Amino acid sequence: MKKIINQIGEKLRAKEYKLTPQRQQILEVMLENKEKHLSAEDVYNLVKRKAPDVGLATVYRTLELFLEHDIIHSVNFGDGRKRYEYGDNTDGHHHHHAICLKCGKILEINEDLLEELEEQVAKDYNFFVTDHELKIYGHCGECKA
């Protein structure tokens, strides 16, 4: 984790930002929970355990800064809350989400299922695709039973 934090610190410094202690605490929470889809409030509650002096406004500002610099990305699952995940899509690989309508469980689907569709849209409509997102809604195995 220390190597990733150092790399991100360098990335921010190259854009004339600092990795302040508060930003580092927020980054550590994102790294420790990279398999989860955290809201800003979730991040805030986790950071407060380690650094009680970090405020909610700092969390929001930092998450937006990290978004701007492709350190994290956000997803909206239709529940009115933006969720954040550590990582970026700069390698061209996307993952998608299956969302249970009953319990809210979110499953990650790591196959990039839309590459052919993107190519077809680009060809048929003379459209340059820069990104895509797929969300599948239904019921997980536990809720279906």
From TrEMBL:
Annotated cofactor note: Binds 1 Mn(2+) or Fe(2+) ion per subunit. Binds 1 zinc ion per subunit.
GO MF terms, alphabetically ordered: DNA-binding transcription factor activity; transcription cis-regulatory region binding; zinc ion binding
Keywords: DNA-binding, Iron, Metal-binding, Repressor, Transcription, Transcription regulation, Zinc
Lineage of source species: Bacteria, Bacillati, Bacillota, Clostridia, Eubacteriales
UniProt-listed PANTHER family: FERRIC UPTAKE REGULATION PROTEIN, ZINC UPTAKE REGULATION PROTEIN
GO biological process: negative regulation of DNA-templated transcription; regulation of secondary metabolite biosynthetic process
UniProt cross-references to Gene3D superfamilies, sorted A to Z: 3.30.1490.190, Winged helix-like DNA-binding domain superfamily/Winged helix DNA-binding domain
Residues engaged in binding Fe cation: 94, 115, 132
Organism field: Desulforamulus profundi
The family this protein is said to belong to: Belongs to the Fur family.
Any single Pfam family the record assigns to this protein: FUR
Alphabetical list of SUPFAM superfamilies matching this protein: Winged helix' DNA-binding domain
Name recorded for this polypeptide: Fur family transcriptional regulator
Binding-site positions, Zn(2+): 100, 103, 140, 143
The protein's required cofactors: Mn(2+); Fe(2+); Zn(2+)
